[in-house]
Every structure is written in structure tokens, then in C-alpha cells.
């Protein structure tokens, strides 16, 4: 048995529409929205009776997806959005962009804030971490060359 692919990365948010707008501005496409609920869903997550509104976002190349989830029931129990980059657990998603400066300019009106600064890694990349809506941490990388 071999691993076939990574289907998606999930992020739980409070404001699904703001998160969709942010990731659309970044360049992801909205594949669709749906309500996930019912006995089967609770068996998968271990949360029992749940209602979750989800939005599936797709990268332009069609190979990667980001699942944004807004839990209606049960209530959210923990908040890791403002954890520092050295916190245990899932950290961030990194996106490759054509023009880092232009991308930052487009994302700032949607709440993007630099975590540190834009840096150059050798002659290979310009990199930065940003916090988006609700403090979501993402990385941006512009390949140089």
C-alpha cells in the first residue's frame, strides 16, 4: 500500500464568509459549501451529534485543498489561533505565490498582518508568515530566480 495524496488541510473558523474571502483573495477557488451533520459525521470525528458548515477551497493547480469549517454544534472548545510558531501541533499552511509584495498588498484589506518580516532565504525564496482573519497563521513563499 502506498500513500496516494494529501486530500486537504482543515481550519476551524468563526466567520466562514470572511475566511472564504481571504483565501479567495489569496488565489484559491471555492469548490463548494455544505452542511456536514448526522450520525455518520459524529462517528468519524468522535463528537457525536454535530452540525458543521464547511467550505472547500482549491488551489489553482487543482492538486491541494483547504477545508474551512464553522462548528454550529457542538461549540468550539479550544482556541489555538494566536499560538506562537513554536507551539506544538499543526502550525501553518505554506502557499507559493508569484509576487510576495503584491500578494501582501491584496491580503492586508482582508486582515493580513506580518508575523515578523519578509526575509530572503539564500537566492532561492522570499518568505514570510502572516496572520489572516481570526489569527490564522499561513506562510507565503516567492521563488526567486
Give keywords.
alpha+beta, single chain, 18% helix, 3 helices, 145 residues, five-stranded mixed beta sheet
Give me the strand/helix succession.
EHEHEEEHEEEE
N-to-C span: 38 Å
Q: Would you report the number of β strands?
A: 9
The biggest beta sheet is recorded as: 5 strands, mixed
Global mean pLDDT: 92
Give the secondary structure arrangement, pairings included.
Elements lengths: L8 E4 L3 H11 L2 E9 L1 H7 L5 E8 L6 E9 L19 E5 L2 H8 L5 E2 L4 E3 L3 E7 L5 E7 L2
Parallel strand pairs: 1-4, 5-9
Antiparallel strand pairs: 2-3, 3-4, 6-8, 7-8, 8-9
Describe the structure.
There is one protein chain. This protein has 145 residues and is of the alpha+beta class. It has helices at 16-26, 39-45, 100-107, and strands spanning 9-12, 29-37, 51-58, 65-73, 93-97, 113-114, 119-121, 125-131, 137-143. Strands 5, 6, 7, 8 and 9 form a five-stranded mixed sheet that branches. β3 (51-58) and β4 (65-73) form a beta hairpin. The protein is globular, with a radius of gyration of 16 Å.
Précis, in short:
This protein has about 140 residues and is an alpha+beta fold. Helices cover about 20% and strands about 35% of the residues.
Amino acid at each position: 500500500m502506498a500513500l496516494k495524496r494529501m486530500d486537504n488541510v482543515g481550519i476551524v473558523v468563526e466567520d466562514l464568509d470572511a475566511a472564504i474571502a481571504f483565501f479567495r483573495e489569496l488565489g484559491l477557488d471555492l469548490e463548494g459549501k455544505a452542511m456536514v451533520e448526522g450520525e455518520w459525521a459524529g462517528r468519524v470525528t468522535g463528537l457525536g451529534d454535530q452540525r458543521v458548515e464547511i467550505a472547500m477551497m482549491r488551489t489553482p493547480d487543482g492538486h491541494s485543498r483547504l477545508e474551512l469549517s464553522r462548528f454550529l454544534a457542538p461549540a468550539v472548545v479550544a482556541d489555538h489561533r494566536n499560538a506562537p510558531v513554536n507551539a506544538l501541533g499543526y502550525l501553518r499552511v505554506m502557499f507559493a505565490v508569484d509576487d510576495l509584495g503584491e500578494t501582501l498588498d491584496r491580503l492586508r484589506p482582508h486582515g493580513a498582518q506580518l508575523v515578523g518580516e519578509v526575509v530572503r532565504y539564500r537566492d532561492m525564496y522570499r518568505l514570510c508568515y502572516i496572520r489572516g482573519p481570526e489569527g490564522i497563521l499561513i506562510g507565503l513563499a516567492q521563488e526567486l530566480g
